[in-house]
Specification:
Blueprint: E1 14-17, H1 20-24, E2 29-32, H2 45-59, E3 63-68, H3 73-85, E4 88-94, H4 103-110, E5 114-118, H5 120-123, H6 129-139, E6 143-145, H7 152-158, E7 174-180, H8 184-192, E8 199-205, H9 212-219
């Protein structure tokens, strides 16, 4: 396996949103532009992947398999990282692969990711030995990366996001808000900001599952 783990990541800029209602309430709203850090690897996903990729390289794996939906940012980013670092990637996609592929899957395929679809019933069994053995028989040995890339290594990687949260003097407190799927990014932020008691982390679940997000974040 070749490739250098250190990607040339551009430090994310912070854009201020200016709206009359914010001024009226003496509020400041900033957006951390993680979408601008790299042309192929964007958003929080690199922070979730970085420690995982280091572990994969240390263990000598040449192939990584992971799961995701048809519009998975995780699948997209994993494909980009695989292309840059010369790691073979396989994306197991929930549901049918409709042609033409949507922009997310088209990008993943262009980066060299092998896409393979399974039905939704099988997808629900994605971590069961029966399905994993079947996938290994088809694709050979691989490193299994969980859906969304979420595991303890991902959470540790997301702790670094706390460094980009600016310190605002003269303010009673601040809130970091983010959308959440598996809760790993939020878990990392909470850990990384633990020493800053003036900061509250607020997560918005992208899933229609009451109580799911709190339970997921609590795992980390």
């Amino acid at each position: 396996m070749s490739g250098n783990l250190e990607l040339e990541i551009t430090p994310p800029r912070i854009d201020q949103i200016r709206l009359p209602i914010l001024g009226q309430r003496s509020l400041t709203l900033n957006v951390l532009r993680l979408d601008q850090i790299h042309p192929l690897v964007t958003g929080n996903k690199w922070f979730k992947l970085k420690r995982n990729i280091a572990h994969i390289q240390q263990k000598g794996f040449t192939r990584v398999l992971s799961f995701g939906g048809a519009y998975s940012n995780h699948i997209r980013t994993l494909a980009g990282v695989g292309k840059i670092l010369n790691i073979e990637t396989i994306g197991i996609i929930r549901g049918e692969l409709a042609e033409p592929l949507n922009p997310v899957l088209e990008f993943a395929q262009e980066q060299g990711m092998l896409l393979h679809s399974i039905d939704r019933a099988s997808y629900r069994q994605k971590y069961k030995d029966k399905l994993l053995d079947k996938l290994r028989s088809r694709f050979g040995d691989f490193y299994l990366l969980p859906e969304g890339g979420s595991n303890e290594l991902a959470v540790k990687g997301c702790e670094a996001l706390a460094h980009f949260v600016p310190k605002v003097s003269g303010q009673p407190g601040s809130c970091v808000a983010l959308p959440c799927g598996t809760g790993a990014t939020m878990g990392g932020l909470v850990r990384g900001l633990a020493y800053r008691r003036e900061v509250t982390v607020l997560g918005f679940s992208v899933l229609k599952a009451p109580g799911y997000l709190a339970a997921e974040v609590a795992r980390w």
